[in-house]
Structures are given as structure tokens and as C-alpha cells.
Design brief:
By secondary structure, the chain is of the alpha/beta class. Helices cover about 25% and strands about 25% of the residues. The protein contains 10 helices and 17 strands. Strands 3, 4, 5, 8, 9, 16 and 17 form a 7-stranded mixed sheet that branches. A 6-stranded parallel sheet has the order 12-11-10-13-14-15, sandwiched between helices. A two-stranded antiparallel sheet has the order 1-2. Helix 10 links the parallel strand 16 and strand 17. The longest helix has 15 residues.
Length: about 350
């Protein structure tokens, strides 16, 4: 099979598609023919050499995977050849305290798909069958790779971490990106009054359809004053910051009293400097969120099938043109997600 490898990471990474043996599913595993695999900023950070934690050398990247079951190993019972599936983000045991609590993405013995074990930037991927969730016929396989990440990741952040209530104002930074545009939709589905913040003027028109409360153009400016103006100086009940260190202070200043700031977008380990009084006198809560469990993936599938959320994929790029996909993401040209197609 053909698979993408990162020979040398860096700002100009050496990416190569190689011919390698197609994996054989072992006991309890399924071999899936990959239909699409989303290119997440997590993958890009690894390609750039900015993220090494938990990344096995010479691993096939790609944790956003959708495809069709080609073959199953012995001892499988949940899947059959021909089933259309989406992958969870982690190879999990299903038995530890975290898994039982629904936090499979933080399994005590878990391995991340696409960095701990081989992922979906290939024609085929083999994972334990419990890591796959079957898709209904009405869900498009070509865009289904974004269901676990970014969509279920934003569901986890907004529903389970921020505990969004109907009628609350939700501001999403980096709103034109893969996490951002889906966070807008999830917040709307949960009954939130949605505002979008972006630094990309070319994405303003597209964002208006997803943010009826207004779109804030940030750029190099502190967007909190505009956010406060749009909320009649009340501020946002929840800010979902999908960008990270560059927008953290503005996000904090955009909060209302007793507001919640959820940070989920940056994995490079950059430091932030902010006024601690902004947290104290706002009685603010700052929360981190990462990943999604199987229950969130299943709920997202239901939401997409019901038309409550629509996957936003700007570009479908052949695996051989992975560098083009990398450039689209790093230049922030893409609206929504870029996916690779083997």
C-alpha cells in the first residue's frame, strides 16, 4: 500500500509517499480502506518538528480517519467487511477507570492514533475494532473523517467541559479553521448565541452563515473590545479559544462575569502572559479540553445525520500532494478542514 512518511520534520518538511506492506488485521482488529483522512494542526505540528511528545519515530500520521472495512481478524464481532466507519482518536483498553468514565481518549494505557500507532495517511489502516464506529448510510464518507476530530472534540469542549446552556453567548476564536467553524455549529446546536472571531478578512463572508451574532475581525488588534460591543458590554459567557497563546489574553478579556474560557487549539507548548486580575475579578474559570470519547463521536454522527451539524471540508487533496495540503493549513487559506485522499 501507499503511505505518507515524514522523513525530516521542519518548516520545510520532507514528506514522502512510500510503498509498504499492507497490514494484516490481528485478533480483534479490523483492516479499513481509508476514504479520507483530515489534516489536523496536530499533524502539522509534528511535520514542523514542533511536537514530539508521544510521537513514535517513522509513524504514519493521521488520526482523523473514515473508510470501509476491508477485512476483520479473528475474534471480531462488531464489524463486517463493507461496513462504513469512522475511527476514534485513541487505541483504548475499554476497562480502566478513565475508559469506563467515557474518557477513552485519556486511557491509562492508550496510544494515540497517528502518533502512537500508525494512522490514516495511507491506503489502509489497522486498529482494534472497538476503535471504529459504524456510519449510517446518510453520512458522506468523503467528509466523515472530521467527525471525531474536529467535530466531536468541539462537542466535548462545549457540552462536557464548558457545560453550555441554551441562551448563553459563545465566542469562538480561530472561527474559520477546522476546530472553529465546527465549534460554531456545535454551540448553535446547543442553543448558544454565537459570535465568531477571525484574523482572516477573506473568511468573513463565509463565517456570517455560521455566526448570526456577529463576526469579529481580530488580526493584530485586541478583539475583546469589539466582542464587548457586540454583547452590549456584557461579554461572552463562554469563549472557546481554538488558537491559543496568540489570542489567550483577548479571549480572557472577552468574558462576562463568571465566564468560562476553554482552551483547546494549541499543542506546541507556547507560553502566555496575562493579567491575573482579569481572572480574579471576573470570577473566571479557565479550562483545558482535548480529545473526545466514543460517546461524543456517536453523538456527532447522530447530529450530522440529522442535519444539525455539517462537516466543512475546503479541500480534498490526493495523498501524493500532501505538501499542498500542508501549505494550505500553515498559510491559513483553508476554511474548515483539509483532508487527504489516498
Amino acid at each position: 500500500m501507499r503511505a505518507l512518511y515524514v522523513n525530516t520534520p521542519g518548516e520545510d518538511p520532507d514528506l514522502e509517499v512510500r510503498e509498504v506492506d499492507t497490514p494484516t488485521p490481528g485478533e480483534g482488529e479490523a483492516l479499513v480502506k481509508v476514504a479520507s483522512a483530515g489534516l489536523c494542526n496536530h499533524d502539522v505540528a509534528i511535520m514542523r518538528g514542533l511536537l514530539r511528545r508521544g510521537v513514535n519515530p517513522d509513524v504514519i500520521l493521521g488520526h482523523e480517519i473514515a473508510g470501509t472495512v476491508e477485512q476483520t481478524g479473528t475474534g471480531t464481532s462488531a464489524l463486517n467487511p463493507g461496513d462504513r466507519v469512522v475511527a476514534n482518536l485513541t487505541v483504548f483498553c475499554g476497562e480502566c477507570e478513565r475508559c469506563v468514565a467515557g474518557h477513552e481518549y485519556r486511557c491509562e494505557t492508550g496510544r494515540g492514533v497517528g502518533h502512537g500507532v500508525n494512522g490514516g495517511f495511507a491506503e489502509y489502516v489497522t486498529l482494534p475494532e472497538r476503535c471504529f464506529v459504524r456510519l449510517p448510510d446518510g453520512v458522506d464518507l468523503e467528509t466523515a473523517s472530521v467527525l471525531a476530530c474536529p467535530i466531536a472534540v468541539t462537542l466535548q469542549a462545549l457540552k462536557d467541559v464548558a457545560r453550555t446552556h441554551a441562551g448563553e453567548t459563545v465566542l469562538v476564536t480561530g472561527a474559520g479553521g477546522g476546530l472553529g467553524v465546527h465549534a460554531l455549529q456545535i454551540a448553535t446546536a446547543l442553543g448558544g448565541q454565537v459570535l465568531a472571531a477571525t484574523s482572516s478578512p477573506e473568511k468573513l463572508d463565509s463565517l456570517e452563515a455560521y455566526a448570526p451574532g456577529g463576526v469579529v475581525l481580530g488580526g493584530e488588534l485586541d478583539f475583546s473590545e469589539i466582542a464587548l460591543a457586540l454583547t452590549e458590554d456584557a461579554g461572552a459567557d463562554i469563549v472557546v479559544d481554538t488558537v491559543g497563546s496568540a489570542t489567550f489574553s483577548s479571549s480572557l478579556r472577552s468574558l462576562t462575569q463568571f465566564g468560562r474560557l476553554v482552551v483547546l487549539g494549541e499543542v506546541e507548548g507556547n507560553r502566555v502572559s496575562f493579567n491575573l486580575a482579569e481572572v480574579i475579578f471576573r470570577d473566571a474559570t479557565v479550562l483545558g479540553s482535548s480529545g473526545a470519547g466514543k460517546a461524543q463521536v456517536e453523538e456527532v454522527i447522530r447530529m450530522v445525520a440529522a442535519g444539525e451539524v455539517t462537516p466543512v471540508v475546503s479541500d480534498q487533496v490526493p495523498l501524493d500532494d500532501a505538501r499542498t495540503a500542508f501549505d494550505l493549513v500553515t498559510s491559513r487559506q483553508a476554511f474548515g478542514r483539509v483532508v487527504l485522499v489516498p
